[in-house]
């Protein structure tokens, strides 16, 4: 059982829509990712010589398996996507930049945005969202969805090259999908009653203790 990574959870929903609506030929992605515990705070030893450098002082190019991992849930895309990560000195929230060639000719940015809005209001509601406001990374802290499309940054070059930028809280947002997985397993486990609510592990606590200091943190 595997819930993949935060970046894969961001990438997969909107890649699925792009492939279904326009057909993906090939593409590359870059995740500008907040630094993580696998990096060094000061220059020190690490098997990855770049991750060995001080995380809070550098932009650190490194590998990511997110693009390839997408093919595990979307087998049709095997061998069509690849990418890298740029670890940056921010504590949380990351952003994926995807550039693809599509089969459909003459596609427009408006069509791409419309496809995302339709999915966000329908089958991918709660997982995918679309943002029309010019925000920055800190504004996406504690967002429950796995992927928030930045509509103003969608570009189309020529008639078949599409660029999509999507934000994600690589800590909180990913945790919501882990909770979803736990609920899914619990609901299918023999002899276990269906879990209450939509996946928030603190939902019942919030309802019964609204004045608690822990609840106020998330207001």
From TrEMBL:
UniProt key word Amino-acid biosynthesis: no
Name of one Pfam family that matches: Gp_dh_C
GO molecular function annotation: glyceraldehyde-3-phosphate dehydrogenase (NADP+) (phosphorylating) activity
Pathway: Carbohydrate biosynthesis; Calvin cycle
Enzyme class per UniProt: oxidoreductase
Record keywords, A-Z: Calvin cycle, Oxidoreductase
EC number: 1.2.1.13
InterPro entries: GlycerAld/Erythrose_P_DH (IPR020831), GlycerAld_3-P_DH_AS (IPR020830), GlycerAld_3-P_DH_cat (IPR020829)
GO BP annotation list: reductive pentose-phosphate cycle
Family: Belongs to the glyceraldehyde-3-phosphate dehydrogenase family.
Summary of subunit composition and partner proteins: Tetramer of either four A chains (GAPDH 2) or two A and two B chains (GAPDH 1).
This protein's name: glyceraldehyde-3-phosphate dehydrogenase (NADP(+)) (phosphorylating)
Organism listed in the record: Arachis hypogaea
């Amino acid at each position: 059982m595997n819930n993949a990574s935060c970046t894969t959870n961001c990438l997969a929903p909107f890649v699925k829509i792009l492939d279904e609506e326009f057909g993906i030929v090939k593409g590359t992605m870059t995740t500008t990712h907040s630094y993580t515990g696998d990096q060094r705070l000061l220059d020190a030893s690490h098997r990855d010589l770049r991750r060995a450098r001080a995380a809070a002082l550098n932009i650190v190019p490194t590998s990511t398996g997110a693009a390839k991992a997408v093919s595990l849930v979307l087998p049709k895309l095997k061998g069509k996507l690849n990418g890298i990560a740029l670890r940056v000195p921010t504590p949380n929230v990351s952003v994926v930049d995807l550039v693809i060639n599509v089969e459909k000719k003459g596609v427009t940015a408006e069509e791409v945005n419309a496809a995302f809005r339709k999915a966000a209001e329908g089958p991918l509601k709660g997982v995918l969202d679309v943002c029309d406001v010019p925000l920055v990374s800190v504004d996406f802290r504690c967002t429950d969805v796995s992927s928030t499309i930045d509509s103003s940054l969608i570009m189309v070059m020529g008639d078949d090259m599409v660029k999509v930028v999507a934000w994600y809280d690589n800590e909180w947002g990913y945790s919501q999908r882990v909770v979803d997985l736990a609920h899914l397993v619990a609901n299918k486990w023999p002899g276990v009653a269906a879990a209450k609510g939509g996946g928030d592990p603190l939902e019942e606590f919030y309802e019964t203790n609204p004045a608690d200091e822990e609840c106020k943190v998330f207001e």
